[in-house]
Amino acid sequence: MALTVGQLKEATCSKLVHATKFLPHIQKTLDRFNITTPAQQLCFLSQVGHESGGLFYTEEIATGDAYENRKDLGNTQKGDGRKYKGRGLIQITGRINYTHLSNDLKIDFINNPSILGGKIVDKCSLQQLENAALSAGWFWDKHKINTLADKIDLKKSIDLGTNKDAFIKITKVINGGTNGLQDRFNRYKAGLHFFLTA
Asked: Cα(115)–Cα(152) distance, rounded to whole angstroms?
């Protein structure tokens, strides 16, 4: 399903100018990683919208020092924390994740981590915009999140029953917990009308 700029803007709760910049890159991502049904797309976009602050941040604000010496992230060399801080529309973090992403997308993020994201959308090159979007699709696909999104019925409330359970599971896969859950719900609801009629 071809994504419209209106769908992208509403589901991510972003500014029109940012949605317009990201539209071709997110469309390419949806196609490449088979995020095709209205439920899959709405769930993906509402989560990405939260993670990126409405398609605004493509790199986490923190320095990355908190990730230094985190062996679980593969950060074993001095400076890895800052070098492999969270980047992309779903924050890819740590040397090991950058390595997997590099191998799968055939792009060298290990030696060129900054091409994955560039602080804020207005400072990003086209390459950074594309990689920020593709990395989010890669993460979504790698963790088989479409199978969770497939459990969501767009005609039923996202706040109840199996819909709520599935959306919380999606959030936990992406976030490791339920940080910002209400905001993620709100973005989903903001975009719902645009996907119900799709």
From this structure: 34
